[in-house]
Amino acid sequence: MPTDESTNHGFLITLCGGMCAFLYSRRRRYVDKMATEPEDQFELYMKVNLWERAMLVAQKLRDPERLKRVRVLSKDPRIERAVDQVLATGGF
């Protein structure tokens, strides 16, 4: 029986999206349980590639060097723009 490839791709995209959300929440909960100090949270968020969370912690710490580190390592244009905006406006 022939299969509709677009249906299969849609299913895989939905499955992958659900798994990504699940893994994201698991990594975030792990960091939240393991680290209570913002400096430690930042390092763990960086280690597990939770760039947005690391950016927020760096912003909370008012640490431009940490923000720059997030920008460089994330390689995500959205994160780069957000960090640039925070650094340009001093949005601490």
Low-confidence stretches: none
Distance between the termini: 59 Å
Radius of gyration: 17 Å
**Number of structurally distinct domains:** 1
Helix percentage: over 70%
| Number of helical regions | 5
Mean pLDDT over the residues: 83
Large-scale geometry: globular
Characterize the biggest β-sheet.
none
Quick one: how many beta strands?
A: 0
Descriptive overview:
It is a single chain. The chain is mainly α and 92 residues long. The chain has one domain. The chain is 80% helix and 0% strand. The chain contains 5 helices and no strands. Helix 3 packs antiparallel against helix 4 (64-74) and helix 4 (64-74) packs antiparallel against helix 5. The protein starts with a helix and ends with a helix.
Layout: helices, strands, pairs:
Elements lengths: L4 H30 L3 H10 L3 H10 L3 H11 L2 H13 L3
In a few lines, what is going on in this structure?
Helices cover 80% and strands 0% of the residues.
